[in-house]
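To illustrate the input format used throughout this study, we show a single complete record. The first block contains the structure-token representation of the backbone; no residue identities are included at this stage. The design step must infer an amino acid for every position from geometry alone.
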């Protein structure tokens, strides 16, 4: 079985050393937090940040993924990987999480989700509420439409909504247990 980590761009600080995670499986995550975990695979939906990271040669030490549109606009940079598709709704939160999950679930059997929050928005701002609902819908759809993959919420705090508890291929576990179990796979 192939295992990977997908670390949410919502992660505010590293919960463990990146080496501990990498001993278990490759890491995937956003260009916004790549340096926090020294990511193996970086996803970037932000044109300006992608341009800056390419100029700093991040693609030499990691697999760096950007949109096909940005790839062309940046002059087809060497060693940069491309993903297809764009978000029709530009207001979706945490797009890099969604893309990283989409790419990772194509290769891995078990996807360890670290730093994710599946809480519904409590904001009274309609746009903020919409953004979070769209994000949750996308994540839930990825998990639901890949029943042959196992997704594990690692160190998830809080209650899950019925939308997520109903997903048979989504479980929860502690970081300590996951690190121990995944090394045995």
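Output of the design step:
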């Amino acid at each position: 079985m192939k295992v990977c980590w997908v670390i949410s761009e919502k992660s505010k600080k590293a919960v463990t050393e990146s080496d501990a995670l990498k001993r278990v499986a490759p890491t995937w995550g956003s260009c916004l937090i790549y340096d926090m975990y020294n990511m193996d695979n970086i996803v970037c939906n932000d044109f300006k940040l992608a341009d800056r990271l390419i100029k700093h040669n991040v693609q030499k030490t990691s697999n760096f993924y950007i949109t096909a549109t940005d790839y062309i606009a940046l002059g087809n940079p060497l060693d940069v990987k491309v993903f297809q598709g764009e978000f029709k709704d530009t207001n979706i939160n945490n797009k890099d999480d969604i893309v990283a999950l989409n790419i990772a679930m194509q290769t891995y059997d078990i996807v360890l989700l670290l730093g994710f929050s599946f809480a519904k928005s409590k904001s009274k701002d309609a746009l903020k509420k919409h953004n979070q609902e769209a994000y949750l819908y996308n994540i839930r759809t990825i998990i639901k439409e890949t029943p042959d993959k196992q997704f594990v919420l690692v160190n998830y705090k809080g209650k899950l909504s019925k939308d997520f508890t109903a997903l048979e291929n989504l479980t929860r576990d502690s970081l300590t247990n996951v690190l121990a179990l995944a090394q045995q796979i």
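Structural context for interpreting the output: Residues 13 and 36 are 7 Å apart (CA to CA). The first strand starts at residue 3 and ends at 7.
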